[in-house]
From TrEMBL:
<dbReference type="GO" id="GO:0003700">
    <property type="term" value="F:DNA-binding transcription factor activity"/>
</dbReference>
<protein>
    <submittedName>
        <fullName>Transcriptional regulator, AraC family</fullName>
    </submittedName>
</protein>
<dbReference type="InterPro" id="IPR003313">
    <property type="entry name" value="AraC-bd"/>
</dbReference>
<dbReference type="InterPro" id="IPR009057">
    <property type="entry name" value="Homeodomain-like_sf"/>
</dbReference>
<dbReference type="InterPro" id="IPR037923">
    <property type="entry name" value="HTH-like"/>
</dbReference>
<dbReference type="Pfam" id="PF12833">
    <property type="entry name" value="HTH_18"/>
</dbReference>
<dbReference type="Pfam" id="PF02311">
    <property type="entry name" value="AraC_binding"/>
</dbReference>
<keyword id="KW-0804">Transcription</keyword>
<dbReference type="InterPro" id="IPR050204">
    <property type="entry name" value="AraC_XylS_family_regulators"/>
</dbReference>
<dbReference type="InterPro" id="IPR018060">
    <property type="entry name" value="HTH_AraC"/>
</dbReference>
<dbReference type="GO" id="GO:0043565">
    <property type="term" value="F:sequence-specific DNA binding"/>
</dbReference>
<feature type="domain" description="HTH araC/xylS-type">
    <location>
        <begin position="161"/>
        <end position="258"/>
    </location>
</feature>
<keyword id="KW-0238">DNA-binding</keyword>
<dbReference type="InterPro" id="IPR020449">
    <property type="entry name" value="Tscrpt_reg_AraC-type_HTH"/>
</dbReference>
<keyword id="KW-0805">Transcription regulation</keyword>
């Protein structure tokens, strides 16, 4: 595995028919469709991701979707990877964001196709990295809508900042709504309203999603499914498996079997 893509998840899936509940990733999601379609929902917009188009989701962006006979290649590059490349291009450390979630550009599609093809064929690391940089730099230069300063990208309203810090510290515990609201000196009603407005998810859905993202990383690093399940606060492995498939579209056992590539 090339150093740039260490611990990066890839998907190469054919004829998928799944419904994806509202969820987010702590990485980018970038993929291309070869056949079929997925109707994706981002920021209250409904968009069709169809043959020869490119899909980009920003980190922590809530989205959902419905797929029909969908064949695609997909990967989840880190914030660090894209911000480093942005810095190499523009000489300032910033995080690029993309508002055109579905991009129709035949040159970009071909660049990402070449990258995925070289990766799945396990070609020389230099070829894979060259194709990766070629595709991502074209995406950044031509389709960046705005940027955030790297060190400040997670800053938001004080309510959200305090809540995310508490959730991060207590992710493996049963966090009550009272505890979250008290932490911000708010009523439960006001806390729920502010949190959902800022995150697009209820606190419960956010915590489940955050636990599943962490479990995903732990399984990638070699933890067993039962170990990952317990470390992120799930007491019931069957409940963990149901949620994992609901959010990601595949089971943790399939993910574990295929390491960092879902086929």
């Amino acid at each position: 595995m090339t150093k740039l893509l260490k611990n990066t998840l890839f998907e190469n899936v054919k004829h998928l028919n799944e419904n994806f509940s509202k969820h987010y990733h702590d990485t980018y999601t970038i993929g291309i469709t070869y056949n079929g379609v997925i109707k994706t929902y981002n920021s209250n917009r409904s968009l069709d991701f169809y043959k020869y188009s490119i899909r980009v989701n920003n980190p922590n962006e809530v989205h959902s979707g419905v797929s029909q006979d969908w064949s695609h290649s997909n990967f989840y590059p880190t914030i660090e990877l894209l911000s480093d490349l942005y810095e190499q291009i523009f000489f300032e450390k910033k995080v690029p964001y993309f508002e055109n979630y579905i991009i129709n550009d035949k040159f970009l599609f071909l660049k990402f196709h070449n990258f995925f093809d070289s990766f799945f064929k396990k070609e020389n690391d230099m070829i894979i990295e060259s194709n990766l940089i070629d595709a991502l730099s074209y995406l950044i230069i031509n389709f960046t809508s705005y940027t955030k300063v790297y060190d400040k990208m997670f800053e938001n309203k004080i309510v959200l900042k305090k809540s995310l810090e508490l959730i991060n510290d207590c992710i493996d515990e049963n966090i009550s709504l009272d505890k979250l609201a008290d932490n911000c000196n708010l009523s439960k009603y006001h806390f729920l309203r502010v949190f959902k407005k800022e995150m697009g998810l209820t606190p419960h859905s956010f915590i489940i999603n955050e636990r599943l993202n962490r479990a995903n990383h732990l399984i990638q690093k070699g933890k067993t499914i039962s170990e990952a399940c317990m470390l992120v606060g799930f007491n019931d492995q069957s409940h963990f498996t149901r949620n994992f498939k609901k959010y990601f579209g595949y089971t943790p056992s399939l993910f574990q079997k295929n390491s960092n590539i879902i086929l």
